[in-house]
């Protein structure tokens, strides 16, 4: 990546000093949500000011309903009130929602200004802060509007994760296991042994994988599709459960379904499925969803990755290696239904 990604514990001071160096004289609009603001907002802004940076802070309520065009407009109006020019900057301090919406606002304000990502959830650190996908929701669905807009710098300080509630932490683990499964057997095996003891190392490795995949395919037309492993069925599970099952947990179950289908179809040995289940269970993630595969197929066929009469899916060949395959819709159905006996 052309931009700096700093990963570590308690590295916020160093990062801010670098910002102050590189961007002296610019005004920063710090964008955050109410939860993160209560925990870190004032301290973070004070740190920036001590380093000599000028900043103003915009806080919006947490939650997906505020990942909206209305919030994008409020952010842009806030930047205008504070007289930000095209050479000034935004900084997203928070989880994936803050990152997506601040990134989108940065891309729109004055036709685009630079922005910095300071992700504070595990999911945002290893996934959404790197890659440059920004988004807002429409009433009709999630992430239906957005653009590609890369940040100029990313800070992943794992100290933020000390306050992250366990349920959100689990969502990040689901995505982390995915990186191991698609790209890096050693990382996968390390995660099989647990997470917390090697947190910085695991975050750094996941970020490096995401950055490498995005470097090879910034606009998501090829290898970046590997990042969707477990997501076709994961999205179907999210929708089927009325979003009671959160994203990372649904992805975990989706990966298991895909692996089971691959075992049934002879694309990988049964041990791959066992290892995946063991790794997820070791990290307290459920591997089984309550409804049968057949009930999920309608939602799965509506997936973004569908292209007319075919659908692109990510199959697992071995731990650390996945392949992208295009299937006709009927073959896709048959492929997944064959997984059912292995899931019972
Ligand atoms: P989130 O932003 O809603 O954060 C989860 C909750 O934790 C929020 O209530 C937040 O206020 C709180 N929180 C954040 N940091 C905290 C901390 N350090 N301590 C305590 N509480 C904290 O959710 P998320 O899981 O980070 O991100 C989900 C969003 O990311 C979704 O909207 C999804 O579409 C998006 N996403 C984007 C990409 C991408 O490539 N752009 C990739 C994956 C997901
Ligand atoms: Zn995901």
From TrEMBL:
One Pfam family this sequence matches: DHQS_C
One annotated GO molecular function: 3-dehydroquinate synthase activity
Keywords annotated in UniProt: Amino-acid biosynthesis, Aromatic amino acid biosynthesis, Cobalt, Cytoplasm, Lyase, Metal-binding, NAD, Nucleotide-binding, Zinc
Protein name per the record: 3-dehydroquinate synthase
Main location: cytoplasm
Protein's UniProt keywords contain Membrane: no
Catalytic activity annotation: 7-phospho-2-dehydro-3-deoxy-D-arabino-heptonate = 3-dehydroquinate + phosphate
GO cellular component, one term: cytoplasm
Domain 3-dehydroquinate synthase N-terminal: 58-169
Sequence positions that bind Zn(2+): 175, 231, 247
Pathway(s) served: Metabolic intermediate biosynthesis; chorismate biosynthesis; chorismate from D-erythrose 4-phosphate and phosphoenolpyruvate: step 2/7
One BP annotation, GO: chorismate biosynthetic process
Organism: Neobittarella massiliensis (ex Bilen et al. 2018)
Role noted for this protein: Catalyzes the conversion of 3-deoxy-D-arabino-heptulosonate 7-phosphate (DAHP) to dehydroquinate (DHQ).
Enzyme class: lyase
InterPro entries membership: Dehydroquinate_synthase, DHQ_synth_AroB, DHQ_synth_fam, DHQS/DOIS_N, DHQS_C
Family note: Belongs to the sugar phosphate cyclases superfamily. Dehydroquinate synthase family.
Essential cofactor(s): Co(2+); Zn(2+); NAD(+)
EC number: 4.2.3.4
Cofactor note: Binds 1 divalent metal cation per subunit. Can use either Co(2+) or Zn(2+).
């Amino acid at each position: 990546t052309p931009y700096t990604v700093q990963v570590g514990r308690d590295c916020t001071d160093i990062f801010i000093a670098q910002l102050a160096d590189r961007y002296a004289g610019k005004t920063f609009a710090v964008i955050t949500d109410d939860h993160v603001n209560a925990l870190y907002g004032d301290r973070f802004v004070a740190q920036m000011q001590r380093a000599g940076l000028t900043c103003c802070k915009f806080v919006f309520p947490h939650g997906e309903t505020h990942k909206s065009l209305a919030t994008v407009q409020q952010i842009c109006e806030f930047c205008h009130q504070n007289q930000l020019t095209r050479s000034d900057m935004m900084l997203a301090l928070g989880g994936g929602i803050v990152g997506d919406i601040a990134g989108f606002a940065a891309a729109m304000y004055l036709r685009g200004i630079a922005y910095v990502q300071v992700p504070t959830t595990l999911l945002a650190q290893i996934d959404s802060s790197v890659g440059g996908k920004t988004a807002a929701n429409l009433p009709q669905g999630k992430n239906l509007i957005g653009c590609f807009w890369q940040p100029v710098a990313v800070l992943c300080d794992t100290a933020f994760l000390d306050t992250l509630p366990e349920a959100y932490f689990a969502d990040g683990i689901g995505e982390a296991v995915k990186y191991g499964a698609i790209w890096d057997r050693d990382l996968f095996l390390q995660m099989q042994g647990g997470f917390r003891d090697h947190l910085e190392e695991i975050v750094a490795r996941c970020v490096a994988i995401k950055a490498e995949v995005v470097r090879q395919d910034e606009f998501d037309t090829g290898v970046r599709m590997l990042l969707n492993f477990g997501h076709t069925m994961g999205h179907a599970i999210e929708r089927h459960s009325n979003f009671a099952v959160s994203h990372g947990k649904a992805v975990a179950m989706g990966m298991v379904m895909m692996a089971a289908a691959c075992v049934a179809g002879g694309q990988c040995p049964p041990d791959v499925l066992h290892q995946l289940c063991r790794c997820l269970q070791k990290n307290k993630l459920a591997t089984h969803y309550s409804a049968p595969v057949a009930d999920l197929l309608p939602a799965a066929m509506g997936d973004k990755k569908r292209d007319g009469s075919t659908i692109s899916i990510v199959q697992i060949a071995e731990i650390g290696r996945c392949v992208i395959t295009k299937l006709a819709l009927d073959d896709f159905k048959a492929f997944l239904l064959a997984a059912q006996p292995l899931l019972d």
